[in-house]
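re: ur question from the group chat, yeah i did fold both. here u go
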Amino acid sequence: MNMPTATQAATPERILLRLDWNVIRRLDGLLQGDYRTLFYGFGVDFADLREYQAEDDIRYIDWNVTARMDTPYVRQYVEDREITAWFLLDLSPSVDFGAAENQKRTMLVDFVTVLARLLTRHGNRVGAIMFGSKIQHTVPARGGRLQVLRLINDLLRQPRLSRAPFTNLKPFLEGALNSIKRRSLIFIISDFISEPGWERPLSLLNQRHEVLAIRLSDPREVELPDVGMVVMEDAETGEQLFVDTHDRRFRKRFFEVAQRREDELKTAFKRAGVDALSLSTDEDLVRAIVRFAKQRQQYRR
């Protein structure tokens, strides 16, 4: 049987069929169908409070009660059979960076499809909020295979913004904080190229929900290839700059700036208590998800 490739017509059915065969079947084998390492602690309702113990997750500390009692208390939850998951999707211009057939947007679509499929086939509900220069589209949370196809279809139909004011994720995260009422599993999928100020709403969102940050990247955003004189364009604003990539010192400065940004992002995620997965356009999606599962498993020990 000849399976469709990523280069064939990108219809929802083709995308889902390709990922069912090339990603989900491999994940089932590697994780033995046990996705608790990815979804541990999600789909739960508040039950009670008790005193903090050494092995407890510090993100469940109730700081208001702790302040009143003068000793740490943690919130306890009971598992709910149904998980409601939300995908907060950054579709700003910088997400269209990358090779023609391997852009960050392509990785975003594939990741959302895989996770939505894994969740819905176990009876859970998934929804999405899509953001460009503002919140553009919301897909209400529902279950089933048809919902996965609707998510893919609505993603493919979203316009690509050629230029826009520099992305600001703060109102996007604040909008999600105000609109998602029930405790949920939230995937924020973005390259986090944004004006500052999004860190606080991210932290507030994580206090109410279980949040995972999926950071999209491309190797050329970190290390420039030596290809001589090129015109570089800011994907967000359209500003252009003529640079000499043959200049070793310029490439070094570019790398150092990228590394500083990487360190700042890691610090922001750590302060917010959010687990983060870096997803590069040159990385195999299966290996990335398995790596994330192992990372979360180690963190929970």
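okk and heres the other one u asked abt
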Amino acid sequence: MHKPTKGPARAVPPGQLIQRELDARGWTQNDLAEVMGRPAQAISEIITGKKQITAETAIELGEAFGVDAAFWSTLQSNYNLHLARQQKSAHDVARRSQLHSATPLLELIKRGWLSITRKSSIDEQESAVCAFLGISSIGARAELSISFRSSEHRGPDWSAKVAWAKRVEHLAGPLVKKLPKYSKAALEKAIPKLLKLTATEAGVAEVPGFLAKQGIGFVVLPHLPKTYLDGAILPVHGHPVVAMSLRYDRIDNFWFTLLHELAHCLRGDYVFIEQNGEDEDGADAQATSWLLPEAAFKAFVKSAAPEFAMSRIETFAAEMERHPGIVIGQLQRRVPDFGYAKGRNALVKVRRLLAPNSHS
């Protein structure tokens, strides 16, 4: 006779061992039903797992197979625990899936934006993400008023953009508390003074202090993967905050993105969570006009095309009180035949000019 072990090394369905006992004896399920005085249907359901082994059934199986009834009760108990663990594991998998859908979790951990590790429990990770996003539970929508400037045609990951914006909020919070009250009228009046800073590289370094005097926060934060973000503007504690990723670390992109966001600021667009193409087009048009007014730019293009000698570009830049890199950038943007090879040396990097309030 086949003698079962006292306890299975792994979680074995009780019905599987019952079937082995039947096979060892050459019995059918009907034979066991006859021995135990049970309906054949009941024996079939126990073997297939549709019914569990009760204390009474354990005693009868013990008598039928000559095995201690406690073995069958323990076998059923161990298997129940195994199923419960499987269900918990599946539930944890679902929770982890939801976490990774809600935010780029591993990237946030890598950058130190969350006070957890990859080995933290699912409860700890979930709690940290909820606190970071300012939500009560995973699946809730994070509250956010913002206008993003990003490459929408590349299909940016919205959850990653929200995570980036939330990090900006956290960084800007302590900064804006020290700022004077923001005034739209004061900003409009200050724009001409701001534009004078575009003439030199050194002007970039003065931008954070200039904006602070207008009650506007300024944060530089590298973009997250799949966000394709250049910048954004959002309210924090009643102050507008301009955030820039410097994804393209060039003087022309810096000034265009900054002025684009300030155009949103003056229009009040950043108080809405969603933006549309008209909002972005309008901000682009305003930034373009501030940098190089249309009439002056068209006159220059007409006189300098098709050669666009660097000496002509530098002279025009000096006349407009703009850095030559800004003119190069606008030529690339607004003149299809200009190309991207000419004047690359003028597109200086600017990240080095900005104090790292957080480049992480």
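fwiw on the second one: Residues 1-9 have pLDDT under 50 and may be disordered. Residues 147-290 form one domain. idk if thats what u expected
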